[in-house]
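User: Quick sanity check before I run a bigger batch. Here is a single chain. Can you write out its predicted 3D structure?
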Amino acid sequence: RQLRRGPKRLGLALAVPLAAAAALPLLRGGFLPSFREGHLVLQVSEAPGASIDEMLRVGRTLSAALLALPGIATVEQQVGRAERGEDTWGPHRSEFHVELEPDSDRREAEIADRVHELLSQTPGLHFEVMTFLGDRLSETLTGETAPVVIDVFGPELERLDEMAAEIAGTLEGIPGASEVAVKAPPGSPVLAIDLRREALAAFGFLPLDVLEAVQVAYQGEVVAQTHYADHAVDVVVILAQERRSDPGAVGSLLVRSAGGTVLPLRELADVATAAGRFSILHEGSRRRQTVTCTPRGRDLAAFVADARRAIAERVALPQGYYVEFSGTAREQAAARRELLAKCALAFAGILLLLWLAFRSVRTSALILANLPFGLVGGVLALVASRLLDPEAGGLTMGALVGFVTLFGISLRNSLLLIAHYRHLVREEGAPWNLETAVRGATDRVVPILMTALVTGLGLLPLALGAGTAGREIEGPMATVIVGGLFSSAILNLLVMPALALRFGRFGEPSGTRP
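Assistant: Done. Predicted structure follows.
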């Protein structure tokens, strides 16, 4: 009956895949999905130069406010760093580990938004809200935790600071910008000791003797070892804690010369506070300054495109200075380009195999026509999953891999049907007409539906649990495949026979007609 409806119904059926293809770019995409670990990591920093005691005070205030939020079980603060630790943070930066209550993984995005709102209302703080696994993956990919990373390269540190501040101001004016920060800002207070060489020569002091005395007093020096139980303990000579904590007492440090002269440090050097840096960033022997940003409520690729345009229009870079975009956005674009390139190679191989098997462009095109049918169900499944859970319905790399897998299965289904039509006409001598088209579709109902059913049932648990922890990557992939298999099987049995009846030429010898 459907085959007799004419070209109007056929055109309507073909318009559905076109609408699905047009809706595909509207789905919010990302390189990696939001991982649901029941755990949040907060990177919090004050102005450079903030002491550990100040960060502990801020930590106590934030911990009490965080524990008052629903869904948060515990808060742990890590401040300072080990002497030989991997992180090169200053004492002004602190890390909070927020453990969520059990069974709160589906509310993790909502809790993260509340935490973000709380931190944004605290003046003087720069912060990032992320998951532990997302933090580690981003650091592995780009060295930074934020999804958008803008590196400014140039020779002069002061000019780099100016360019970074200008770029940060430009980013803050872009819709969706959040957590904009300069990674190594200047302004960290330091105590500068400038030796006066005339005074050193007049009193018989060597510069090295004075500097070593300052180092021993404030950093300490190992002079011996003692043994306690089964391990050795270093004996360190260092100035008393109360003297080291008072910047005004530095000038009163007594220094002894080789001749026995003892003078306070202020008589031999100028001691004053100055602005310094807790970190100077380099990459490939080039100085750089880094600006990071976390878009909220916007597609990552669209935000980066707006950021590139705004920086190019509003930020004038001097000669010798240039900007590079990195972060998750760049990795996402690179991964998609690689996936598309490999898919193009695979598609070329499929075209070649189809030509070798059928020796007909028309027949090969009919087989490939089933690919958009799978796209319909995949897009509808993603839209439905996004309506049920906005954090689970994105066009991530897992979903893209699902589309690639789906197209392979859809191609197999159409190959089964078209090859059977060819067999009926050439081997069994059936005339190519409406009855043969119906007969061929009827013969292939069971194989096509069984292929879709077995694969769909196998992936259905993953698709239904797409929003739970541990299935953030496989869930969208399974959702796309299950939804696409349903539409591909139905449209393949209803629309493909009509296409084959109208455009198929199965009775002609191979190679005689394109």
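Confidence is low (pLDDT under 50) at residues 510-514.

User: Great, the batch can go ahead then.
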